[in-house]
Every structure is written in structure tokens, then in C-alpha cells.
Write a structure and sequence with these properties.
By secondary structure, the chain is of the alpha/beta class. It folds into 4 domains: 86 residues, no CATH class; 69 residues, Elongation Factor Tu (Ef-tu), domain 3 (Beta Barrel), CATH 2.40.30; 240 residues, P-loop containing nucleotide triphosphate hydrolases (Rossmann fold, 3-Layer(aba) Sandwich); 132 residues, Lysin, CATH 1.20.150. The chain has 24 helices and 20 strands. The strands form 3 sheets. Strands 12-16-15-17-18-14-19-20 form an 8-stranded mixed sheet, sandwiched between helices. Strands 5-6-9-8-7-10 form a 6-stranded antiparallel β-barrel. A two-stranded antiparallel ribbon has the order 11-13. Strand 8 and strand 9 form a beta hairpin. Helix 13 crosses helix 14 and helix 15 packs parallel to helix 16. The longest helix has 25 residues. It is elongated. It is found in: Cell membrane; Membrane.
Length: 682
Amino acid sequence: MIRAAKDYAADLKLVENAKSNLQSVKDILEAVPQIGVEFEDPTVSLEKKHLVIDRVFPKEIRNFLKVLCDNGDFGLLDEIEQAYMELTKTPEKVEAQAELTYVTPPTTEQMERIRLFLAKECNNPDIKIVGKEDASIKSGFIIRVGNKEYDWSEQGRIDQLQKHINQSLSGKKLATVSEESIISILRADIADFELAAKDKEIGVVNWVGDGIANVDGIDHAFYGEIVLFDCGVKGMVQDVRRDEIGVILFGRDTEIKEGSRVVRTGKMAGIPVGDAFLGRIVDALGAPIDGQGDIAQDGYRPIENPAPSIVDRKSVSVPMETGILSIDSMFPIGRGQRELIIGDRQTGKTSIAMDTILNQKGKDVVCVYVAIGQKASTIAKLVNTLKKNDALDYTIVVAATASDPAPLQYIAPYAGTALAEYFMYQGKDVLIVYDDLSKHAVAYRAISLLLERSPGREAYPGDVFYLHSRLLERSSRVTAEAGGGSITALPIIETQAGDVSAYIPTNVISITDGQIYLESELFFAGQRPAVNVGLSVSRVGGAAQTKAMKKAAGSIRIDLAQYREMEVFTQFSSDLDENTKKQLAHGRALMELLKQPLGRPFTMAEQVITLVAANAHVFSDLPVEKIKAFRLGLLDDFAKNHADIIGRLDSSKDLADDVKDAIIQAANEYKQRSLEDENGGN
């Protein structure tokens, strides 16, 4: 029976003399069938239907019939009558029954005490007790009545004691405590331990499939609560309905069947956290998947947590250097900022995020890389890159692969953020990469459609904006009173054929503090990273740049814009004046300098030296194909022969005039030597 009919039946209970009035309606429709035909015809106006209702039917039921006509549900009248009859029929007296599980049947005295207990708890002295033998409970009894369970078994005592001790010892670093103190902790816990045989709310699965289970019988579960299935699989309450709950599963649903038992835990979904997670690869539940054993945890954080308040936030003013010249010079990212990386498939989005992680080596920044819906082989390659560059030591990889169920892909970014928050509230700076949120939205769409939520634009549910906003708002730079750390977020979004006006890209663009737009045409033309200078932006701007970088990069965007405009107008012209030729040569040199080898981030000092030399036209008269090699040679020369200049840039973070002059002089001297060596070699 459809749910709408049940809802209408519930409304019908409010109608006076509903049963007799409903019979009157049925009699009238039987006598004049044409009325029912017209009421079900959508082409007949509502005014005409209301007029007929007012003239023909009893006044007590008129409003109810008008609602049916307004909603186009008059055809459900038979189903509504049937639902109403079921709703109002006097329930047959069902004999109350309790299930008693035991190893050894209870004695007469024990059975009498059990009867008295059940009579008091269930307010029914005539409750029937059905026995069931089960050797696995070791000894004692378990009583189940309806959706409640009372556990007095030996196995239940063992499980509860073990859980109690685990909770008591969690967070205590046992390596630093003597054996005597551990024994004293255990003694105190056992002395304080009392068996909690009180009722547990238990439900039953009525439908399961595609990582979703609908559960009956749990009436008091809250959104986001963890529930436990009898096969050991965990789930999270994602939908709370009138007569059932929808649960997303954090494991395979092959062992869960209709009739499987489900127990509430009373806990919010969370993840273990701690310093020992650094250098490890974990799944969306915090369990290690790198084969290196268990991870010692220092605490437990909920995966869903409120974002820091405005009072607890600080303005973004400290650079989070990516090591990529085109980004650090024109679209700087600050600690606590959220900068979107957006572009088509295979345009280098992940490469930018990986180079940024590699560039944090030695800068006391914790990195969290969240892989959502990617192939396991792709994640393995990224982990190998991190290991090869000694970057895994300060990085945590949270992986929810394409083969994982949609619920695990859904919670993965929240779990990664919970790990990041652990470090942020200890005063550390964290960089978190979400790769990518397009697949995250697809996973949430799959879950929502299976939970029968209404689809909206592009079949995404209406709350998909809130899905990403509540995630990215947790990235911030907090005050010293609130912890003093920061989370810098680099969410990645994959577009289809460069369509940034699609639903998910526009949502995330509006949430973040700027975007780095990667263009396919630039990528295939060899301009890598393929950053589109016109569409990319950082809404933090110069506040997240050092003074040295700000001075060195002053006019680069204008120079590039002028070069692109001039290149269009001059591509068919052969007669150019000297100034135009110089400008074109300078623009070509800048475009070549913005190309950067993969896995070779530049330090702030190297970027400043490159930009100062470029603005002094050191690269302009070089052949384009030799600029990259010349730049690398120039930086090596500065590292060997001009370490004092690099030292001053690193210590002062400023570009004094004498330092600028020294850079230009040293660059010109190196250029002269290079040309002489080249000519001498020829």
C-alpha cells in the first residue's frame, strides 16, 4: 500500500463520523459514476470540482475531498478506505511473548523471578516466555521482548567489561606508564564496573541493497548515529522517517539480510586521531590499509563537526607556498584559505596538489591527502611519489577507492578533515587536498536516490550545496585562544568539456576563496601547468604573499595580458617596430618560464630570482627552446656562488633595492659566461 494512502487515512481520522461519511461518498459515487470520472480528470477545473463537492457530499467530509482533488489523488479513494479501516480496526489481542535464551534451563525459582521482572517491565502479568538454548552465551540468561533486550549472560559481562576497559585506557599512552600503574588502572576500573543489563534498542532490517538498509523498530535514533548489525558491519543513520530509519553501510552488505538485527550505539560517527597517523594510509573509517599494523590513537573526533565561529577566526596573512611559479606569483594561497583547483580530466589538477605537498617539506606543515573514488593503482603511484621525495613522513593519505561503497566515499572528506582538525587545534598548520569533490557529490547523489530523496538539478539532491559548504567552512586559520593552527583546503573539481557553469562547479566556486582554472588547450599545447591566467583568481591576493614576491611579481599579469592581446594582432604582420618586438619577446620568455617540470617545486627565493631576472629582460633575447635549461642553470649558479643573496631573501622575506640590483648583475654575468662557453664550444 502506497504511503500517500496511509497519510490520507491518518488525516481522515480527524473527520467527524468519518466512517459513515466515507460510506455516503461511496454510495453517491456508485449511484452517479460520472462524478468520480470527472474528479479524476485533470482537464476539469478545480472550481467545478469544488462546486460539485459543496452541492452533493456531506459537509463534514467536503474539505477532505477538496484536498484529494487539489492534489490529483481522488483515484486513491479505495486505497484510502482500506488504509483507514486497518488504521481504526480494534487490534486483536496478541499474546505478549518474550524469548529467554539460556545454556541451562532456569530453575522454578529463577523462572518465577524472571516472570515478576517481565510483568513489571512490560506492565503485563500474563506474558508468555519461550525458551531457546544457546551455548555461545556461556552461562546466564538473555531476555528479548519486542525491540528490547536484557543481557545477563556471561558473554555479555565479558563484552561489556572489555569495552569498559578499552574506553578507560583509550588516550593513555601505555608506553610511558609502568606495569604497576596499568594494573592499578585495571583494578580501579573493575572495582567501579557494574553490569549494564538495561534495555538496548534493537531494530530489524526490512530492506537492504546497494549499501543502504532500511530498519524498523528503532524509534529514537538520531541523524549521524552509528548502528551495529549482527554480522559486525557498522552503519550510519542518514534518514529518519516516521516509521523507519535509512542507514548507509560502512562495509559490504552481502551478510546483511531481511530480518538481520540492528543495535543502536548512541555514538556519533567518528574517526580515531593521533600523531601516529602521520606517514600512514587509512580508509574512511581510520583503519590502516598499508599493511604496517595498527595505529596508536590519541583520541577520537566526530567526522561531522561545526566550523570555527567568526570570533575564533583570524585573517589569512601567512603564505602557503605551492612552489609553482605561476600560482605563487599571480594567485597566492594563504594558510587558512580554500583555493579550488578546477579543470577537465587529465589537465594536471592532482599534479598541482602533489607539488604543493612536496613543497611543504621542512616547513612544519602537516598534509592530508583525501582520495575519493580513484583507482587503487592511481593512489599507489601517488604514495610512491610521496615516499620517493620523503614527503610521506608529514602526510596522511585517506583513501576511499572507486571499489569502495558510496557511503565510504561520502564520509572520506569529513574523516580527513577530522584528522586535520586534530592537528589544527594543537597549533599546527595543515594542508588538506580533496581529490576530488565531483566524485564525492556523485556518491552522495547515489545515496540520496537510494534513500528516495527527491532529485533536483542534474539529479543531485537539493542539499548538495550544504554537503560541500559544511565541509569547506571547517578550513580556516584560528586564533591562539582557539588553538592557533590552520587548515588550508585545496578542493579539486573535474569539469566536463570546460563547463564551469555546471551545478557542482558553480556551487564549489561560490564556497571557496578563489580558483586555479586549468585549460585543456594550454595543456595539450605544452603549457604545463596549464593555468589559465584570465579565469584563475585568488580572493586573498597579496595578503598571502611575502614582500619579496609581491615586489618581484608586480607587473607579470599585465605583461602576460598585453602579450596575449598583441600576439593575436601581430601574428599576420611582418613589419613590427622595436618596442613591439621587445614586448613579444618578453611575453614569450614569461610564458616559457611559467612552464615547470613535474615534481620540481621552486623555493620562494628561486621564484623571486627568476621573476627579477625576467623583468630585467635577461631571458628575452634567448631562443625559446633554451630558456628552461638556462633558468635551471642560473638557479644552480645562485645556489653555488651567491648563497648570500638567497640567505637574505629567505631571512628578510623582502626584496631590497641592493638585493634586486645584485640579482640582475649576477644573472647578466651568468648569461655572459654561458654565451661565451657556448661560442667557445662552437
